[in-house]
Amino acid sequence: MSLAKPAMRGLLGKRLRFHLPIAFALSLVAAAAFKYGVTGPRKQAYADFYKQYDTTKEFNNMRDAGVFESVRTTGE
Amino acid sequence: MLHLTTGRVGCLLSKQAVVALTGSGARMSSHGHHEVSDSVDMSQPMYWDRLDTPLPDRPWKDVLDSTDKSLKQKEKGPWTALSKEEKIALYRLKFNLTYPEMKRPSHEWKTVIGGMFIVFGITGLVVFWQCHYVYPPQPPTFDEEWQAKQLQRMLDMRTNPIEGLSSQWDYKNKQWK
């Protein structure tokens, strides 16, 4: 019944040496995924929208629909 | 469940509180004095079976008969002289339950889950009764017609036209994309 003496020291260090690089890598992956998956497409969507945006046309559409209180619909 | 709740009570609390929470239980064995009721004499060292506090104040068997006494005498010598059965007997003199025995699984979870579902059922009935008898009449804003008009107004206002609601509506063909 002679077992090997278990590790008594350096347990936290061992754990950190294993887990910290993984933690950093996963964090970077998460940040990159968010940047390329969410913020990138979102900025692009906004840019594309405003490239084709005709302010006056949209205003007139909204006015004709009757959503404004300060501007009457055309033809009144 | 008792073991779980009393696990919170560590050595820091007085033993009185520990026993009050654990109840007297099967803690007396071969005890010299006979307890009339279930109350424990707190002025004496106590025995307990606890996972978190391993070494109780007194051994399990206080009152030793002659065989036990001779075994205890033998224990004073070199332990290599003890046989396996003697070592186990000495352990059983000192302790009531082993750690695996303390950790043995029980059927308590079935009671817990069952009780949980019963309470869910009763709560469901209460909620149903409440919906029928307590709630005031629904505001008009929940009607189908109102909701349709509301949605139309939101589209007219071009709410969230880039990524949200109005971006999903096809204004030319008057339908969802």
Automatic annotation (TrEMBL), chain A:
GO BP term, example: mitochondrial electron transport, cytochrome c to oxygen
Keyword tags: Membrane, Mitochondrion, Mitochondrion inner membrane, Transmembrane, Transmembrane helix
One Pfam entry name: COX6C
Assembly, per entry: Component of the cytochrome c oxidase (complex IV, CIV), a multisubunit enzyme composed of 14 subunits. The complex is composed of a catalytic core of 3 subunits MT-CO1, MT-CO2 and MT-CO3, encoded in the mitochondrial DNA, and 11 supernumerary subunits COX4I, COX5A, COX5B, COX6A, COX6B, COX6C, COX7A, COX7B, COX7C, COX8 and NDUFA4, which are encoded in the nuclear genome.
InterPro entries in UniProt: Cytochrome_c_oxidase_VIc (IPR051389), Cytochrome_c_oxidase_VIc/VIIs (IPR034884), Cytochrome_c_oxidase_VIc_sf (IPR037169)
Protein family (similarity comment): Belongs to the cytochrome c oxidase subunit 6c family.
Task performed by this protein: Component of the cytochrome c oxidase, the last enzyme in the mitochondrial electron transport chain which drives oxidative phosphorylation. The respiratory chain contains 3 multisubunit complexes succinate dehydrogenase (complex II, CII), ubiquinol-cytochrome c oxidoreductase (cytochrome b-c1 complex, complex III, CIII) and cytochrome c oxidase (complex IV, CIV), that cooperate to transfer electrons derived from NADH and succinate to molecular oxygen, creating an electrochemical gradient over the inner membrane that drives transmembrane transport and the ATP synthase.
Metabolic or biological pathway: Energy metabolism; oxidative phosphorylation
Topology term for the membrane: Single-pass membrane protein
Transmembrane segments: none
Annotated localization: Mitochondrion inner membrane
Name of the molecule in the record: Cytochrome c oxidase subunit 6C
Cited CDD domains: CcO_VIc
Automatic annotation (TrEMBL), chain B:
Source organism, top-level taxon: Eukaryota
GO cellular component annotations of the record: mitochondrial inner membrane; respiratory chain complex IV
The UniProt record lists the keyword Transcription: no
Alphabetical keyword list: Membrane, Mitochondrion, Mitochondrion inner membrane, Transmembrane, Transmembrane helix
Transmembrane segments: 112-135
Subunit structure: Component of the cytochrome c oxidase (complex IV, CIV), a multisubunit enzyme composed of 14 subunits. The complex is composed of a catalytic core of 3 subunits MT-CO1, MT-CO2 and MT-CO3, encoded in the mitochondrial DNA, and 11 supernumerary subunits COX4I, COX5A, COX5B, COX6A, COX6B, COX6C, COX7A, COX7B, COX7C, COX8 and NDUFA4, which are encoded in the nuclear genome.
Protein name: Cytochrome c oxidase subunit 4
Organism: Oncorhynchus mykiss (Rainbow trout)
